[in-house]
Design goal:
The protein is elongated. The protein has 4 helices and no strands. By secondary structure, it is mostly helical.
């Protein structure tokens, strides 16, 4: 009988040291889920309120303008920009570029910084914050 060679074990997460590239990969999945569930829920609610008339739409804007509503909308905006920039990062990597560890980590950190900055710019504009 032929002897079977033991198959190599895949390294577990406890073996790997966490890096920004790993965090961004997980964030890409999480923001995709957040945009799918939360984004579609808010979009559907907005469209239904718009279709039902002025009173229902006023209720929607009241909730959306509340502190909790703003946190949700700002969170969805950040999720959008994080997912977008991470998707661009993956697109670049699909061309075979940015696989060097230093470049990959830098690119990952830039997606996080970029998403926070873009979110801040959008909400400063929406809320009318003057610098």
């Amino acid at each position: 009988m032929a002897a079977t060679n033991p198959r190599p074990l895949s390294p577990h997460l406890s073996i790997w040291r966490w890096g920004p590239h790993m965090v961004v990969s997980i964030l890409h999945r999480a923001t995709g889920v957040a945009l799918t569930i939360g984004g579609l829920a808010v979009l559907t609610w907005w469209l239904m309120a718009l279709a039902k008339g002025a009173e229902t739409y006023a209720d929607f804007t009241k909730v959306a303008g509340s502190p909790i509503g703003l946190v949700v909308l700002i969170g969805l905006t950040w999720s959008f920009f994080q997912h977008l920039l991470s998707g661009i990062r993956h697109l670049v990597m699909d061309t075979g570029a940015a696989f060097e560890l230093g470049v990959n980590k830098t690119f990952a950190v830039l997606t996080i910084i970029g998403s926070v900055l873009l979110t801040a710019v959008v909400w400063f504009y929406i809320l009318g914050v003057r610098t």
